[in-house]
Amino acid sequence: MRTSSIMRETKETKISMELNIDGNGQANIDTGIGFMDHMFELLAFHSGFDIKVSCQGDLKVDSHHTVEDLGIVLGQCLKNALGDKRGITRYGQMTIPMDEALVTTTLDLSGRPYLVYQVTLPMLVLGNYETEMTKEFFKAVSDQALITLHIHEAYGENTHHIIEAIFKSFARALKTAVMIDEKNKDMVISSKGLL
After folding, report:
1. Where do the domains of the chain lie?
2. DSSP label at residue 183
3. Could you tell me which of 6, 81, 17 has the C-alpha nearest to residue 51?
4. Mean pLDDT, the chain cut into blocks of 10 residues (195 residues total)
């Protein structure tokens, strides 16, 4: 089983996360940010990962520290659960329509963190979630999980729809990338022999 669990505590956040890549899409999420709970639930469902998250953050300030630290911990869990990445497909891509919005996520579990984020969000806040934190979340995931990650919004008008399409397309692309390629299950898919 490809699993990981992390406890991370700072002066700004206290986060406990459990991740099972080979799960059934089960989610048990409490981040203190309703919109973020919803996004993690979508991430679990569309990736097929089991994810359990408990987070206490300094939301009296804003959502910045909580969202960024959730990205850090998710990235670390992904990295740990994947281990040496032996047998994985490595690459994933998915385009998701969400009503009027269309978003494509392309990723490579390359061992080289890089984020390209081409997204315009019309609204600044959804509930107690600052929408600019979407980029910071995925930057943290990319940096910690060592993922080359490209997120491209072709078009969209509704901020909720755009962000939901981002999370769904990321989840589906990640689901493809972590799948075990039975033909190459004993190999690391790299000409260098290391990811």
Report:
1. 3-184
2. G
3. 17
4. 96 98 98 98 98 97 96 98 95 98 98 98 96 98 98 98 98 98 80 75
Residue 115 CB partners (closer than 8 Å, separation 6+): 135, 138, 139, 142, 143, 149, 150, 151
CA dist list (Å): 110 to 26, 54, 96, 117 = 27, 29, 23, 18
How many Cα atoms occupy the beta-carbon half-sphere of 49 within 13 Å?
A: 34
> Are 93 and 107 spatial neighbours (Cβ–Cβ below 8 Å)?
yes
What pLDDT does residue 186 have? Answer: 77
Distance between CA atoms of residues 90 and 110, nearest Å: 7
pTM: 0.96
Distance between terminal CA atoms of the chain?
A: 20
pLDDT, residue 192, reads 77
pLDDT (0 to 100) of residue 156: 98
For domain 3-184, the CATH superfamily is Imidazole glycerol phosphate dehydratase; domain 1 (3.30.230.40)
